[in-house]
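seq:
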Amino acid sequence: MEKKTTVGPKGEVVIPKEIREKIGIEEYSEVIVDILDDSVIIRKIKPESVSYVNFYSSTYSKKLKKRIDIKKIVEEQYKGNT
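struct:
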């Protein structure tokens, strides 16, 4: 499937909707950009990388009785180890 698109002033390229839907690229998906001869290759990362903190926050934190800022706790622990 070949589609024509335009490079914006900051080097941004819009991936046409038909192509995004076909390979499953959604908003904020991470992709790999590579060069092959004189072509630019954009590949979807499989599986998509998700930080442990974001994964935990979106799954287990819903079961907690009170809200806990996990990112803040991790940052405080990291600062204490330097």
